[in-house]
Design a protein that fits this description.
Blueprint: E1 5-14, E2 18-27, H1 35-42, E3 46-52, E4 60-66, E5 71-76, H2 80-92, E6 100-104, E7 107-111, H3 123-133, E8 141-143, E9 147-149, E10 152-154, E11 157-159, H4 162-171, H5 180-191, E12 204-206, E13 215-218, E14 221-225, E15 231-233, H6 236-245, H7 250-256, H8 262-281, H9 284-295
Antiparallel strand pairs: 1-2, 2-3, 3-4, 4-5, 5-7, 6-7, 8-11, 9-10, 12-15, 13-14
Helix pairs in contact: 3-7, 4-5, 5-9, 6-8, 8-9
């Protein structure tokens, strides 16, 4: 899968005039959109205003209003080039994502998708979207490059052993960074992980950070999945993350057609994002992580 590079320079002139961006050169990969139209439409268009987008805790995200009446999303961060590859991978499954208009080192420009709705009325449609995203693949578990949530590194790599991947790269990677008692309990779970999750589940593409804030809803339909941290693995991981901040109804899980025993595996998979949140924010997430381990008899 190739990347799209459209070298854009964002120049800050002053608050009164806003920002100008121009395109110097481009190379089109698999991202949707006509690159020649893309180039001509972006070149020399003045940005008349910029507003911070809510939810950008770990990166700088702005909505740019253009002089021609359009708006786009500008995202800055050290991993936006990899995120562009992830968005293209999700797009290839026919799940909706914003088009990548341009990406250079540290900066990505995205289509501004509508998202004024609430997920509460869209669970059935989300199940359909995830049916596309989570189609079985012949990929190895993992991802070719490491990623990260702000200062928290996400080790990846590839393996055919899902238990090994989850133990080493989703649990034990946290041990040096959390308090000793919690670390001991997580280590004991890693040692007996094969008792809780399958070694070789059906491998699907995962969004990797699937919570309500990363699901755009418009008119009761999913308009786009945003802010991915993709890798390949057990699709139940995405559902565990989804239940961390939201409360999907039973009908949603029924529509997903999950394998027997999925409810018992949810605490294992939910522990991963909770440990990330322990490291990022501390507080109540420590108690939630401990509650997952309680449910697992640890």
């Amino acid at each position: 899968m190739s990347e799209i590079y459209l070298s854009c320079v964002i120049q800050q002139e002053n608050q009164a005039r806003g920002l100008n961006f121009r395109c110097n050169r481009y190379y089109d990969g698999t991202t949707p959109g006509d690159p020649t139209k893309m180039r001509s439409s972006l070149m020399g268009v003045r940005v008349v205003s910029a507003a911070r987008v809510s939810g950008g805790d770990l990166s700088n995200v702005l909505r740019l209003s253009l002089a021609d009446g359009r708006s786009i999303i500008a995202k800055r961060g050290p991993l936006v080039e990899e995120e562009a590859i992830m968005l293209a991978a999700i797009h290839a499954t026919q799940a909706p994502v914003p088009s990548v208009l341009a990406v250079e080192k540290g900066l990505m420009l995205l289509e501004d998708l509508p998202g004024s709705g609430q997920i509460a009325r869209s669970w059935a449609q989300l199940a359909e979207v995830l049916d596309h995203l989570h189609r079985p693949t012949r990929q190895q578990s993992g991802w070719d490059r490491d990623h990260g949530f702000g200062p928290v590194a996400i080790p990846n790599g590839r393996t055919d052993n899902w238990v090994e991947f989850w133990a080493e790269r989703r649990l034990c990677c946290h041990l040096p960074h959390i308090e000793p008692h919690l670390a001991d309990r997580v280590s004991r779970l890693a040692d007996r992980l094969a008792d809780h999750i399958p070694t070789g589940p059906q491998v699907a593409l995962l969004h990797g950070d699937l919570w309500g804030g990363n699901i755009l809803i418009e008119k009761d339909r999913v308009s786009g999945l945003i802010d991915p941290a993709c890798y390949f693995g057990d699709r139940e991981v995405d559902l565990a993350m989804l239940s961390l901040f939201d409360q999907p109804p039973a009908a949603f899980y029924d529509a997903c057609g999950l394998e027997q025993g999925w409810q018992e595996r949810q605490p294992v998979y939910r522990l991963w994002p909770l440990l990330v949140h322990v490291r990022l924010f501390g507080g109540a997430y420590h108690q939630q992580a401990s509650a997952c381990l309680d449910m697992l008899g640890l």
